[in-house]
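User: I'll paste a sequence; please echo it back and then give the predicted structure.

Assistant: Echoing your sequence first, then the prediction.
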Amino acid sequence: MLIEHAGRTYSTVRGSDLARDGMFLELSVAGSSEVLMEIFYSSVDGSFSLSSFGAQVPLEVAEALIAGARELLVQRPEQIS
């Protein structure tokens, strides 16, 4: 997922985390490996948590990341085969 804001492009990486039993969506500036924010979805209790790693992230970008996490990280019953 790419997020454009104020002339800057942000990219996301989605992955699973077996140790924490869930999935995550990480936000970086496109072309950088530095993670600015992470949203984690717990498969155990269905909760979300957001971590910010000291960078200032525009609110519009954080909102887009949250919306993307709700769409990309939660498995709905119809998606499970």
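Strands lie at 2-5, 8-17, 22-29, 37-42, 48-52. Residues 3 and 10 are 5 Å apart (CA to CA).
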